[in-house]
TrEMBL record:
One GO-annotated biological process of the protein: cardiolipin biosynthetic process
Name of the gene encoding the protein in the UniProt record: cls
Name used for this protein in its record: Cardiolipin synthase A
Signal peptide positions on this chain: none
Topology term for the membrane: Multi-pass membrane protein
Origin: domain of life: Bacteria
EC code: 2.7.8.-
Role according to the record: Catalyzes the reversible phosphatidyl group transfer from one phosphatidylglycerol molecule to another to form cardiolipin (CL) (diphosphatidylglycerol) and glycerol.
Keyword Transmembrane helix found: yes
Annotated source species: Photobacterium sanctipauli
Compartments reported by the entry: Cell membrane
Amino acid sequence: MEQFYQILAWVGVFFYWLMIAAVTMRVVFKRRVVGVSLAWLMIIYIIPVGGVVAYLLFGELNLGKKRAERAKEMFQPYADWFQSLNDCPGHQPQLMSEHARPISDLCENRLGIPALSGNTLSLQDSPQKILRSLIEDIHQANLTIDMEFYIWHPGGLADEVATALILAAKRGVEVKVLLDSAGSARFFRSHWPKLMRHSGIKITEALAVTPFRMFLRRLDLRQHRKLVVIDSEIGYTGSMNLVDPAFFKTEAGVGQWVDVMVRVTGPTVAVMNSIQAWDWEVETGDRYLPNLPECALPSLADTMDMIQVIPSGPGMPEAIIHQVLLLSIYQAKESVVITTPYFVPSENLLQAMKDAAERGVSVDIVIPDKNDSIMVEWASRSFFTELLNAGVNIHRFHGGLLHTKSVVIDRNHCLIGTVNLDMRSLWLNFEVTLAVDDPEFTQQLNWLQQEYIKDSTLVNRSEWEKRHITNKLIEQFFYMFSPLL
């Protein structure tokens, strides 16, 4: 009997070794960013069995068979729709600035989506302004309202938005709402979905989280876009989820969340609506591809309001927003100002920021002083020394959890949208960013960034080096996992 158990033990060891070897080969042959591969190998070797299970659940970008098949079937119709935008008179690539043209060329070649002019943009810089403006536009809607958010959290002005949608649906407006299952879990447990569906609103739970699905697709793949389109004429996007900060994560000890949204009118709204239509069809199989925008020849005053819509995530070209960020930073001649709540940059982004500072570009990074993610907070700190040594300015914002995701280059070109500077946003989640070639709008965003900086503390290089050795060790520990955060 003892010999039998000994043989059984050796067989178990052999199969465990075989499993580790197979997963290791899988990690290596995927040819991803080296840091990501090394982080996964460390987890697999340090955590017996659990590391392998974690990799099978979260290690690869698996959208699920049904969604992948839908996306494949959708590709050509959407590609044709985007191609038709080249005939829009608002497509005037020869009028773009020297910053915008390379970004437009990259996005047209990889995404097939051209930049369009003839838009108007309004920067809404507080949650109260955003929600009040949204409620007013909903009350004025006549035909359709399409909404897509990562988080819808009941309470306060968010409930007023829900009430406005119900009233709109009752007067005949077609309302569709797509919400991420994990981010909006509290909303789906509330009474609002039943009330809204009863009024005729179509609500879809994106990327549902259930134990049954854990081996069918990657569970931490999230729908992180924030998009609203009303009557195909008014669009909203930016950093803010559908929450009233006075009622959201009040117990987290980080203060109220600070966000911005951009209200857009013009031909770009149809492009934003097409991204929503893509997400809706991937999730439901129902097609609502919008009409092409009615473009007029841009006037002289409109020639510098180019907007490039840049979606990313499964079904889109890999790391497209990451590429745009790198291109923007490497093009900078005078200044780069970045605001982000979660700062865990890729190796390439880290190097781009350091290179910019070392060639004399003023580089400022504004992040929250307190973060709702302990892991991200410690991982972020692990990059400070390198950046400070290169001459990058790091500002810790004290006015709440700064959730605005923005990049301003040379005060004349900007990126604004849903993307955090972390690997999850840049490589995994469904995201959207607007590249805006409009000096007036960019100046407004730059002024807002400067207000954030005034309410921040600049990290002092010499003081930073004096932090306790324990802090340094914790930072290095979480740095090892930064490619997965």
